[in-house]
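Now for a sample.
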Amino acid sequence: MVVSGKGGVGKTTIAAALGLVASGCGKETIVCEVSGQRRVPALVGHPTAGAPGSEEQVAPDLWTTTIDPELALVEWAGKLIRPRALLDLAVRSNSFAGFINAAPGGRELLTITKAAELSRDERWDGEAAGYQLVILDAPASGHGLAMLKTPTTFAEIARVGPIANQAREVEALLADEQRCAIVLVATLEETPVNETLELEAALTAQLGRGADLIVANGLIGDGLDEQSLQELAAVSDAVSGSVVAAIQSRHARSVHQQHQLQRLSEGARCSIVTLPSITSHAVGPDETEQLAALLGEALADLA
């Protein structure tokens, strides 16, 4: 499962919540972060973040990891390079870092390939077991799309050899809607909605498939109607002006969100679930669990 969306829309929180939903159903799940990020453990109430590249259990049937492209390349090469002394020499000489930095899209290819590897029965590390569900907290929007495109690009460039074969395996996985789901996260503002609709269209154009689900995050429901607003105006002399202004501002934002939700519903080709705005402070384990419960209910209704 690949989770993407515009930066700042709560993508990582949704990835963590989806992890809780899946693990709560007894599915062995790992949530993968990229670019050195390690936010998921704290979001699910785990005190440590683990070493780079480690797969750390943070809850029953739930693990997290941060994918390091260089470590992933060393691990993959360990399956191919014999004798071991040659691999050790390449590591000491920084040959792998040189390859990653020199090859355009190399980091993206290794990241998506490592995420796919985590789901395999036969892992690069022969002693490790594959997970039933891998959730990749992918880079935001355009960068996330570029990552999903890299296996196809490398398969076309390399044509033959282990890199081409590995790229084609990942390409086939991403294209298979029975094995791979793509979830887009948006907030109900104009720019995130625009980017979500553009990203959904780009997925179809570049990968031959669209998204499976859009999560509209942070929906405000103030419950006010026109009569309530009229009653508020009638007592405005007895109520602090700042209180009235705050209520009116929140209602205006709620109306704007409903307009954007309608735009999203009319333009999207996949199912949409909404999640409420549940906090005004930093999101922590309690909020993540609350979102997971709501997501679980919404996904059950879709099923």
In short: The first helix runs from residue 11 to 24. The first strand starts at residue 2 and ends at 5. The beta strands are 2-5, 29-33, 56-59, 62-66, 133-137, 182-187, 213-219, 271-276.
